[in-house]
Amino acid sequence: MQDKKIPEIQLSVIIKTLNEERNIARCIEAAIAATRKLNVEIIVADSGSSDRTIEIATQYPVIAAQLSDFSERSCGIGPQLGYQHSKGDFVLILDADMVLHEEFIDAALARMKAENRCAGVGGQLVEKSGTGYEYDLRNAMDVEADVNVRWLDGGGLYRRTAIEDVGYLSNRNLHAYEEKELGLRLTSKGWHMFRLGIVAVDHYGHAVDTVGLLWRRWKSGYADACGESLRVSFGKNYFWEMLKVHKAIAVCLFLQIASLIAAALTSISSWPLLLTLLVWFMFFIIQSTRKKSMKVAIHSLVHLNVFAIGMAKGLIKGQVDPQSTIRSTVTHSNQN
Fold this sequence. Notes:
The protein is α/β, with parallel strands linked by helices. It folds into 2 domains: 11-208 and 320-331, Spore Coat Polysaccharide Biosynthesis Protein SpsA, Chain A (Alpha-Beta Complex), CATH 3.90.550.10; 239-315. The chain is built from 13 helices and 10 strands. Helix 9 (225-233) crosses helix 13 and helix 12 (271-291) packs across helix 13. It is globular. The relative contact order is 0.15.
């Protein structure tokens, strides 16, 4: 009697989680419904939840993998943790506060199969989160559709052979911008990505105000990520493109350093400080003109200054080999 051949996994859905007990059931149920026609595995990659996230997730046919060392927590480590346990020919990245649309999966897989050098396909994200400076920016963005892009923000579908070509899925050192860093690695090796015009996910983010979200960004290390992403890009042919991503924050950091130097020189001359203050004023005027609102310009400057300090921190942080194995525990495996 011959053993039955185990069907190959077509798609691995990786769901990143951290204290998402309010969202995880909805996310998993939507993923199951959207991928019901495929041979799929769903992997919950947890960064050390202290609530009922894992308990709820393991009521579904998923594999749940949790970081062994919670101090390693970052935005970049979640996707890589899930990828480490995945087997699918294609890999879909979701946040636990997202709801996947079936139409996107069908269209994205069709696109992948039609173009062998297409490494990733994204879609449109519908923001259903609270109000605040960052969320307002996202809602105001005119996201291009049906075009080649350099990276996929807001999750996306990736080809495993492309990921293997660039070594790893997501850089575990990054507290943000991991999708941009992945996209630049892929495109630098001749792969391309595409963003569809159809909705991929609905996003239900944290319902916090501008100050609360900014404080969350600082505590989590998210604000350091602009510096981290520059550091991991040093010596790569896409460094200058990564710097362009952070140009406003880099200018703000330069002005902060110039201001400190000018303040230290006041015993010699007050002109450097006055000149620096004038440059800050001009920066504010430019922001007010661009944002068409003084209130938004103030929020922008506060945001930029916090992230500029984070950039300095991120630039001097130590790095772990992004291809090294992430220590984890598989807390549940109940695939159908």
